[in-house]
Input
Amino acid sequence: MLNKTGIPTAEDVKKVSPSEDRLKEGPVAIIECFQEIPCNPCTEACKQGAIQPMKNINSLPKLDFDRCNGCGVCLSRCPGLAIFIVDASYSDTEAVVRIPFEYLPVPQVGDKVVGLNRAGEELGFFEVIKVQSGGNKNKTYTLWMVVPTDLAMDVRSIRLGGVRHAS
Amino acid sequence: MPKVKDIEILVVGGGPAGLSAASAAANLGAGVLVLERDGKPGGQLVKQTHKFFGSKKQYAGDRGYQIGNLLIEQCENNPCVEVWTDTTALGIYEDGVVTAEGQGKHLKINPKKVIVATGASEKMIAFPNNDLPGIYGAGAVQTLMNVHGIVPGHRVLMIGAGNIGLIVSYQLMQAGVEIAAIIEAAPTIGGYLVHASKIRRAGVPILTSHTISEAYGQESVEGAIICKLDENWKPILGSEQDLKVDVICLAVGLSPLTELCFQADCQMKYVPELSGHVPIRNEYLETTRPGLYVAGDVSGVEEASSAMVEGRLAGINAAYSLGYGEDVAPKLQAEALVELSELRAGPAGQKTMRGIMNLMDKGGAVC
Output
């Protein structure tokens, strides 16, 4: 149970996941926000009109997967660091997962990092192919990692404490 | 300086509520003096490195310290606001005079209206050896790290999975400190689940229905024994675990800092949902002592976003009662009230809503 462990269940994740077909079409946001709290910056961040205006500020965000182009602006704006971008069109066997990142050191392009799932369990070494800075004010980095397609909906964090290089 | 400082509105406390109150009142033309105990205004905002929730109106998406700087700037740029730092309010007298200590001097202030925005203080819990060096309140850990740049230790046991426990754990991890576990006596996580999830996926266990049985160590903390609780919150024998940690951080709740309200003879009421004794006040935050308003955690422990709106509301009302902003004040009041009810409308605000209902219920026992 999410409210006992902090780990969203498979059912929770399913509710906010696009179809397999949509995932294969290209980058799309996965908004892992499961609790009604007073918060709406994602709705204002989205310039595609994909995150619909909320009925009230406590409503859960609603994403129109077909309108979402995976630009990632909402990812860097979400105060809860609860938005990820998955691009399963990267190659036949691999997907790109973008995660918000606010720790030091910030990995560099080309680094292999240890990817973790929602429970913090290790899933393997994955290459960082892009690092976007959120800028001076926002400060949240976006890390782009290449992962096997079947792990695209599982990799959500990386092991902290520096980069472990594969030997 | 004259023996007694005359001022239209005195704000006690320069945190999110107090600074918002000061600039709202000054924007309508009132003269405001803010007393701040610390060397710098901003209250707890100066230590908050995470992005805030809420909406644009409460600066959502900005980090707490950025919002603090913004509020400080708003006050600095307003010639009607004066801020006295390193100044602690000491008492409030029957004739309305407020006394304070600042720069080693005993100061007297004669305000027409007072807004008490003193915030809250941290609670403590009882367990063997809870006085060992290495046991901190979460506020102290934040001050050490985020104000002075000092990490408190290497490996931390966090007690409490409310928003403060979760956020301070995250900040510790950002500073490179390991969190052995976050334990919470309640069966569920009290803070926002997005905070919990981001910590959990970085590998930190969050153990609900767990408490600390004891701390141990010779000169300072060397470890803690934690145990599981059954559904009646009784320790389960044999469930003990030994965690080697050099820091135990307590984030077990806050109590409104209401001494001035008690002293001012405001009618007080114990409201558990608001975290303790709070002054009875009307919708516009005026207490039973006419001309004395409250805003922020002192009127019931809540989030900084609502503290800022409450501050604004109290500031507008204090200025309005002095004859300022007659054309715009009613509209501004209505806007602030709408913002507050929006913020509290969801499940996360239900406890506060119940608390305020309980507080407004005149039938209850008061002291």
